[in-house]
Structures are given as C-alpha cells and as structure tokens.
Amino acid sequence: MARERGVGRVGERVDAAPGHPASTDVGVTARARATGVGGAGARSPWPGRTDGGAAALSLAHDEHAIVRGLWRGIEVFRVLALAYAAWSLYERRGDVLHPTAAVAVLAVLAAWTVAQTVRPMRTVRAYTVELLLGCLAILATRLVDDADVITAGAKTLPSIWPSAAIAGFAVLRGWRGGVAAGCMVAAFSFIEVVQPTANTVTNSILGLLLGGCIGYCVDLARESHEALREAMRRDAARAERDRLARTVHDGVLQTLAYINRRAVDLGGEAVTLGAMAAEQERILRTLVGQGDLGEVDRAMTGATDLRATLRHVERPGVQLVSPAEPITLPRRVADEVAAAVEAALDNVRKHAGDEARAWVLLDDDGRTVSVTIRDSGTGLAEGRLEQAAGQGRLGVASSIRGRLDDLGGSARISSVPGHGTTVELRVPSAGR
C-alpha cells in the first residue's frame, strides 16, 4: 500500500492569533458580555420580545457552528487514525525489524490521544506538542523498519495520525497555520524516506491542501461570524434609539426648543442659556433621528465650528470677534476651549471690576487656533497668580492652563495693574 503521511488535525481556537480573535466558549462569552450581545439568558434589545430576536442573539456568544463541528471531527479522527496506525502495524508485523519499539511509539501516541479525548486542550502549545509527536513518530519509522521496506513505499509508523495536528493548526491559526504545519509534516516525511517516491510527494501535497483549505474555511467562518455580531449590535442599538426617540421627542426636545425661543425673546443673559439649549437640542435630534450610527458618532465627536461653540459667551459687556471663515476643531477640543474661555470670563466678572468690558478674539492661521480674552479691568498685581496657586486656589491653573495642556496647546496670561488682563489660548488647528 502507498505510504501515507500525516495531514493534520483541526483544533479549536483558544489562543489569539494575528488577525484572528480568541474564540473559545469562555473567550467569546466574555466578549459577548462586553458588547451586550448574546449569552445564555441574554435580554432581547427589543422590549417585551423574547422569541426569535433573543434566540438569534444567543448565536453570537458562541463559536461559529462550522468551527465547533471541526473540533468534534478532529477528536473522532484522532482516535480512528490511531486505530488505523495500529491495524497497519499488526498487518505487517512480520516485516517490522523492531516490533517492540514500534509498539512503544504507538503507545505514546495512544496516551496523547486518550488525554486529548478525555480533556481536550485546544491551544497552540498543545497542538505544537502533538505536531512534534507526529513528526518524531514519522522519523521513528527508520528505527523499526528495514531501509528497503521504507524505500519500497511502506506506511510510516503513525500513518495518518499527524493529520490531526495540521487541521488543528488550521483552526487555531487559519490557513497560514495549516499550511505551515503541513510543510513541517512534509519535511519530516522527506527526511524519513531519504529518496522521495511519488506517494511521498502526493501525500505531502494532500497535507498542504488539507491545512490550507480547512484554514481558509475557518477564516471565512470567523469573518462571517464577526460580521453577524456587528450587524446584530447595530440592530440592537437602532431599536434602543427608536425607543428612546419616542420618549424624548415629545418631552425633552420640545422643552429645549421652547427654552431657546423664550431666551431670544427675553434677550440679555438669557440668550446664553438659549444658545446652549439650541446646541443640545441639535445633538439630541441627531442622536434620536439618524438611522446611520456613523452619523450619530460624527454629531457627538466629529468636527465643529468654534465660532458657533463660543457664540453663547457673547452678552452685554462681552463681545465676540471672529473671522468670516469657520474655525473647525474636533468637538472635544472645541468644548474644552470653550470651558477655558468661560473660566477666563468668570475671572473677569469676579475680579476686573463692575465697569470692565471683555473681548473674545478668534483667529486661525492654518497651524494654530488662538483665542484671546482681553478685559478693561483693574489688572492683576505682580505675583498674584503664583500666590493664589500657593494658597490652593487652582482656578487658573486647572480650568485654563490644565485644559490647554491636555489638548497639546498652551495658555499665556499677561496683566498690567490698572490696564486689564490678556489671556491667550492656543491649540493646534484641526488639520495639524
């Protein structure tokens, strides 16, 4: 009978591989809990719905069905391959030079098979050990067989038993792992036979095809599984947003719109409150009304015009001077700059005097966005900021300088007693 070389086995995937997330039951369950998708007893994201929706979500917490089937197949194949190797040895027992050594080699393979059957170890380390056992058993054939019998095309001692390791690496590491394991088995086969025969070449190619094809199928299965989980996550998010939209639309949105309208009618400092209400209404309408989750994310964290963000600071005694062109910054950066400006204006209100006026000047030179707050107040005495910091009063240090430092920018404060104070805030522009 033609020589048969080990082709390898498909193993369940536990260790994380490059480009392949870990996928044991425990690992997937943990990932599902983190995303709120799947798992036994998981709630359906649709209130009151516990039928097909929840059943579909439970699929996502477990490994793909194809991979689970491959693991079971490997475990059965390993046992059958060992039985086939033992039968082959018994069939040609008269031609074996050292039958005791041959039985000892198969006994080692049998011990590993029993261990993997009773308590499967589906890790790269375990399958590396199994691959080495299979390859060493191939080389052991030269110790128990006559060289002429080997050259004539007799089976190797482990026969097809190493095939389980190839398939295992295909499941653990994808097609690259399967092909690499197949190459290793093929190399040991060529070393053992010395003079390769047509059967040696054929069986080696079959091993490479087995590892590559199984690994490719597993890669596709995992990719489709991840795509399904992402689609289910988005569906759940949309359903929850739709539910919130029905609750929010008739309450919060109308209230914010009313505050904005009344603030405009009242004028004065109420305009600031109205501008803030209008901005929150816009964000909330985007959140509850957009079907595209990407659009929602852009509305919450995307770019915004700093001029619009600072519009609410303008009031009697405070003038906002901005260029005609938009000054675009990431929303988080714009919000932090606005908070620093508000802190500076709050200091003007508290310390500059009742008659003091303030100006907020915006500028963007393409590399840096600068916001300058000037007032016509009494100014600061020399060393006043350092004295305040020493007394534990960190308003300027944390509310202004601390915010700008976190953004990678800077804050410079200059003052002349009797001639007001200037606060200059600088942050990198959106394009930098």
UniProtKB/TrEMBL annotation:
It comes from the Bacteria. Gene3D superfamilies: Histidine kinase-like ATPase, C-terminal domain. Residues 1-24 are annotated as: Disordered. Residues 337-429 form the Histidine kinase/HSP90-like ATPase domain. Keywords: Kinase, Transferase, Two-component regulatory system. The keyword Disulfide bond does not apply. NCBIfam families: HK_morpho_MacS. This is Histidine kinase/DNA gyrase B/HSP90-like ATPase. It comes from Terracoccus luteus. The lineage of its organism: Bacteria, Bacillati, Actinomycetota, Actinomycetes, Micrococcales.
